[in-house]
Amino acid sequence: MTESTGAGSAVLGQDGGGPMVVVRDLHRSYGTGAAAVHALRGVSFEIPRGELVALKGRSGSGKTTLLNLVGGLDTPDRGEVEVDGLDLAGLGENGLLELRRDRVGFVFQSFGLIPILSAAENVGVPLRLRGTPVREREERVALLLTLVGLENHAGQRPGELSGGQQQRVAIARALANRPALLIADEPTGQLDAETGLAVMELLRAVVRSERVTALVATHDPTLLGLADRVLELSDGEIVEHRTER
Q1: Domain assignment present for 27
Q2: Mean pLDDT value of segment 74-89
Q3: Quick one: pLDDT at residue 244?
Q4: Strand ranges (DSSP E) for the chain?
Q5: Residue 70 is part of which domain span?
Q6: Is the pLDDT of residue 57 over 90?
Q7: Is 19 domain-assigned?
Q8: Cβ atoms of 92 and 34 closer than 8 Å
Q9: How high is the pLDDT of residue 136?
Q10: CB of 66 within 8 A of CB of 56?
Q11: Separation between Cα atoms, residue 82 and residue 67, nearest integer Å
Q12: Cα-Cα-Cα-Cα dihedral of 128, 133, 137, 140, to 10°?
């Protein structure tokens, strides 16, 4: 079913009923002149709160660029991005740092775990950076490791875990500060099909249990059916926006 991609707005601190993500006429290019690469060409869409949205498209279609812009890791040449009612253009560098620390969790296909730390210590890193009291931090870490099915692996280091287990630790770490939005860039890219499906099913369960909104880039068509809706990018443009459920 094709949907409108018209944009709206949300006001933080009211009823929380507006969309979690609003993107309006987003453009992003790299380079200049004839050599310029137009990664995004006028992208617009909304993501309702509490949904798992899959972002599909071939390599080079603009998926990672779009995720970076939504997550405040990059700035557009033109257009607007709102996350949880906040206009990212008006935040400034400190505001963007707070957004990434407090409101957005990131999961990447490379896992990004600290090798010398245990699973529990890796999950607890964002809480340490935030100055969370020890008891509260330990309780949150234990809860998250149980949520991702790794309560019996808390003391193991990344090198002692399988790829799927490392990605589960990365998901738990991304949820540590109770983000409103979870952004995942090809989180199953380094996993076999069975493990990748299990991780995607975990992400869906996390959306429900943690009441988080998720935007997940994936090239695997078998995983798209787990999403509430699918956005397809091609040559920097949204070419399809459909509801799966």
Answers
A1: no
A2: 94
A3: 60
A4: 21-30, 37-47, 52-56, 78-83, 86-87, 104-108, 181-185, 213-217, 229-234, 237-243
A5: 49-75+92-243
A6: no
A7: no
A8: no
A9: 96
A10: no
A11: 13
A12: -130
Residue of 106, 129, 82 lying closest to 203 (CA atoms): 106
pLDDT number for residue 154: 96
Q: CB under 8 Å to 205, separation ≥6 — which residues?
A: none
The residues, ordered by sequence, that sit 6+ positions from 55 with a Cβ below 8 Å of its Cβ are: 63, 66, 67, 215, 216, 217, 218, 230, 231, 232, 233
Average the pLDDT over each of 12-26, 57-71, 81-95 and give the range with the smallest value.
12-26
> Considering its fold, how many domains does the chain have in total?
1
* Predicted local distance difference test score (pLDDT) of residue 190: 83
Query: What letter does residue 208 receive in the DSSP assignment?
Result: H
Question: Amino acid letter at 208?
Answer: R
Give the span between the Cα atoms of 57 and 218, in whole angstroms.
Answer: 8
Q: How far apart are CA 90 and CA 111, in angstroms?
A: 31
Mean of the per-residue pLDDT values of the chain: 87
Question: Which residue, among 166, 22, 132, 156, has the nearest Cα to 82 in the 3D structure?
Answer: 22
Confirm whether pTM is higher than 0.90.
Answer: no
The domain that holds 109 is classified in CATH as 3.40.50.300
State the average pLDDT over residues 98-117: 91
Tokens 């890219």, residue located: 189
Q: Has residue 1 been placed in a domain? A: no
How confident is the model at residue 1, as a pLDDT?
A: 35
> Is 30 part of a structural domain of the chain?
no
Are 31 and 16 within 8 A, CB to CB? no
User: Contact at 8 Å (CB) between 5 and 241?
Assistant: yes
**Mean pLDDT lowest among 13-22, 52-61, 84-93, 190-199:** 13-22
